[in-house]
């Protein structure tokens, strides 16, 4: 039997919820509603002339091979960022979870990248990977690797994946570390006494017990890769070369902010909104079943 | 007689009585600009001089990020009913702003309404033409105009034994081959702003339309002209240079900006406004030269076009005549020969007015700074034709990016020059049609 909190008065719970609901409405539902409305319109930049065009903006999007290309880029990019950011963070968290000297300093340092603004992070990566001025860029060209992410699409994608994943490692690290620390030591000790190797203990005990954290981070990381990475892309590659690093969110930004085509940009936002809702629903429906709480 | 002067005296007294309130409340106007760093400091200095020069108006100049941020921010602010009085908009936003109808107040109208003279004839033809309507009336206020130049590293040239400065692309290629053979610099040649330099400027000096008719000056029913043999020849020329290791593509917009001043590349194409940075950073002897041309296509190259930005006067429901007067007074102030000459000399932008050019010449500025007038000469060396007067294409920011993207794919070896131009032409035409449709009244 679940424990229920009973309010004597029906109004009070609504009153307590009101501030949160108001914020959700003003900052989430209102803009989202406006995006849906705009996606059916065609406007000039100043909004002087407006034409209702039904689904034309959407039809144009899906008839555009470049848009389909940016869907492909987004899938590759998001998967790469999520896998890289989560696996590196998990590795670091496992290491930090041991009894080591200077653990606090080590943990603190690992959290720093999260506090760095995307544009600043991108500049740091430019100093590393720029073909002419970057440390690694110069080195690679020096040893005969034709490193030029300004013109090589695969390299450009690799650089933005690295930069985006690096920013997210800290966040994942924090949660993985907290998850690891909540795993009962007694279980691990029992397994150790039974003679289970370290790797076996990790895969059969730690990893399953971490699954709620992993699941939570999976949702967060995919959302991050979808929505929060355009600052890095803008500063590093501007979606290029050609359209090798143009993700869906970056294209929505360019079409809306730079090209001033609000109709198409809104249609793209709606597509993104639907995609992320669908993705999250699928994750909760299928993956959550495998999660041990 | 006596009575009249008495009356006049009374009027003055009345005006004076009213004045204290007015003097305390100087009319304040907002000016959003998009020049960072040293250039932004120059903007602030000039605004401060304007504010100090009179007691009626205060211009409040605010740095609002790059050109894109200023433009989108100003448009969003206008939609919300609270735009700045003046917004600095880059040249590629010109068509969008011109189509903005009630959102903007053209300079000629501002001048007529406020009675503050802003005479269009005082501006250099290449500058004036870019920002005028089809009747030749000034719509936006010229502010910072540059043109593209070829910068060369004279130390590297000496090392390679090049004595004659290249004028044509044929000579540039010959020089590049010598530079490469002498291993004078790690990179031979690069360009900033690939679309602006290699398409817009080049088509202009070769008297070829980028879009027909008249690069969009005659209306929105304009089509791209990238199928012209000139573009194929020039893009193929660039691809061949790259294949032979003579040209390095270093990214969009100004991404290649540091490669020439740092000594990495011996030849760099870029804005004349890069002069200040080159003067500060370059640790070698350098020179600025006019853009090269294909001498088998044209014997005497036409004028180049400007880049940069102009100032747009935005309207709002609650604007007062005094506020518009403040805007006009500010425009008149920055057009004064001494102000304009100062701006030209400290920034590297070309002078806006003929008077400032004459003044700089009389002061011996170009003797002290050889090559500082290369951009002006290039802009003024021929009477502009419909193909060389500038560009007024809706969605031009997007068109620039489309051309850059397709050029990148060609440089990657993914497509031929022909295919790149066809794709760019097709995609850019879609942008033009969408703009035409969205702005049809």
Plain-language structure description:
The complex is a heterodimer of chains A (293) and B (441). With 293 residues, chain A is mainly alpha-helical. Chain A is built from 13 helices and 2 strands, in the order αββαααααααααααα. In chain A, strands 1-2 form a two-stranded antiparallel ribbon. In chain A, helix 5 (118-129) runs parallel beside helix 11 (230-236) and helix 7 runs antiparallel to helix 10 (211-227). Chain A starts with 10 loop residues before the first helix and ends in a 6-residue tail after the last helix. Chain B has 441 residues and is α/β, with parallel strands linked by helices. Chain B folds into 2 domains: 14-146 and 307-366, Periplasmic binding protein-like II (D-Maltodextrin-Binding Protein, domain 2, 3-Layer(aba) Sandwich); 148-303 and 394-438, 3-Layer(aba) Sandwich (D-Maltodextrin-Binding Protein, domain 2), CATH 3.40.190.10. Chain B is built from 18 helices and 11 strands. In chain B, helix 2 links the parallel strand 1 and strand 2. In chain B, helix 2 packs antiparallel against helix 13. Chain B is globular, with a radius of gyration of 24 Å. The A-B interface holds A 42-49, 51, 131-133, 150-153, 238, 240-243, 254, 257-261 and B 68, 72, 75, 78-79, 96, 99-103, 186-187, 249-253, 255, 258-259, 262, 264, 395, 397-398, 401, 404-406, 408-409, 411-412, 414, 431, 434, 437-441.
């Amino acid at each position: 039997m679940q424990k229920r909190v009973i309010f004597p008065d029906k109004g009070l719970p609504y009153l307590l919820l009101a501030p949160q609901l108001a914020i959700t409405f003003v900052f989430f539902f209102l803009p989202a509603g406006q995006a849906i409305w705009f996606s059916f319109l065609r406007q000039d930049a100043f909004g002087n002339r407006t034409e209702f065009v039904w689904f034309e903006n959407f039809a144009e999007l899906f008839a555009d091979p470049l848009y389909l290309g940016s869907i492909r880029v987004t899938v590759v990019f998001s998967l790469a960022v999520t896998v890289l950011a989560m696996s590196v963070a998990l590795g670091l968290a496992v290491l930090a979870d041991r009894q080591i000297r200077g653990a606090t300093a080590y943990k603190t340092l690992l959290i720093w990248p999260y506090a760095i603004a995307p544009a600043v992070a991108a500049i740091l990566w430019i100093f590393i990977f720029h073909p002419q001025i970057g440390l690694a860029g110069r080195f690679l060209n020096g040893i005969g690797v034709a490193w030029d992410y300004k013109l090589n699409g695969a390299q450009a994608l690799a650089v933005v994946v690295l930069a985006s994943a690096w920013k997210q490692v800290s966040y994942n690290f924090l949660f993985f570390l907290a998850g690891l620390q909540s795993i009962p030591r007694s279980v691990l000790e029992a397994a150790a006494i039974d003679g289970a190797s370290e790797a076996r203990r990790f895969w059969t005990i730690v990893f399953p017990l971490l699954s709620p954290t992993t699941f939570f981070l999976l949702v967060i990381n995919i959302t991050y890769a979808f929505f929060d990475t355009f600052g890095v892309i803008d500063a590093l590659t501007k979606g290029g070369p050609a359209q090798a690093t143009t993700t869906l969110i970056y294209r929505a930004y360019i079409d809306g902010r730079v090209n001033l085509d609000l109709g198409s940009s809104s249609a793209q936002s709606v597509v993104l909104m639907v995609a992320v809702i669908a993705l999250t629903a699928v994750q909760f429906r299928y993956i959550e079943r495998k999660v041990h709480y | 007689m006596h009575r009249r002067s008495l009356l006049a005296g009374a009027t003055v007294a009345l005006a004076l009585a009213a004045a204290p309130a007015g003097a305390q409340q100087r009319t304040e106007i907002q000016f959003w600009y998009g020049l960072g760093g040293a250039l932004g400091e120059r903007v602030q200095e000039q605004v401060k001089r304007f504010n100090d020069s009179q007691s009626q108006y205060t211009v409040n100049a605010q740095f609002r990020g790059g050109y894109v941020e200023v433009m989108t921010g100003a448009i969003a602010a206008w939609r919300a009913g609270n735009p700045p009085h003046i917004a600095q908009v880059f040249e590629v936003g010109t068509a969008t702003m011109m189509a903005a109808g009630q959102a903007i107040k053209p300079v000629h109208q501002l001048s007529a309404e406020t009675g503050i003279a802003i005479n269009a004839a005082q501006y250099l033809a290449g500058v004036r033409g870019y920002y005028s309507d089809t009747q030749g009336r000034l719509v936006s206020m010229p502010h910072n105009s540059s043109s593209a130049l070829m910068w060369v590293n004279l130390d590297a040239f000496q090392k390679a034994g090049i004595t004659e400065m290249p004028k044509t692309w044929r000579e540039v290629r010959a020089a590049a081959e010598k530079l490469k053979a002498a291993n004078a610099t790690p990179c031979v040649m690069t360009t900033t702003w690939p679309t602006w330099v290699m398409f817009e400027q080049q088509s202009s000096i070769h008297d070829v339309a980028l879009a027909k008719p008249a690069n969009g000056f005659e209306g929105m029913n304009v089509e791209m002209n990238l199928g012209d043999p000139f573009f194929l020849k020039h893009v193929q020329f660039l691809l061949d240079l790259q294949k032979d290791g003579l040209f390095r593509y270093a990214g969009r917009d100004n991404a290649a900006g540091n490669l020439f001043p740092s000594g990495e590349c011996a030849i760099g194409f870029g804005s004349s406004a890069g002069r200040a940075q080159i003067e500060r950073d370059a640790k070698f002897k350098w020179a600025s030269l006019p853009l090269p041309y294909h001498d088998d296509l044209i014997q005497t190259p036409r004028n180049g076009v400007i880049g940069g930005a102009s100032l747009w006067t935005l309207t709002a429901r609650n604007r007062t005549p005094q506020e518009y007067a403040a805007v006009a007074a500010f425009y008149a102030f920055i057009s004064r020969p001494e102000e304009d000459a100062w701006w030209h000399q400290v920034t590297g932008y070309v002078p806006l007015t003929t008077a400032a050019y004459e003044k700089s010449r009389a002061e011996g500025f170009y003797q002290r700074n050889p090559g500082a007038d290369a951009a002006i000469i290039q802009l003024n060396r021929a009477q502009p034709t419909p193909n060389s007067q500038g560009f007024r294409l809706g969605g031009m920011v997007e068109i620039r990016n489309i051309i850059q993207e397709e050029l990148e794919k060609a440089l990657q070896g993914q497509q031929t020059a022909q295919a790149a131009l066809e794709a760019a032409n097709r995609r850019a035409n879609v942008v033009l049609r969408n703009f035409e449709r969205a702005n049809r009244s």
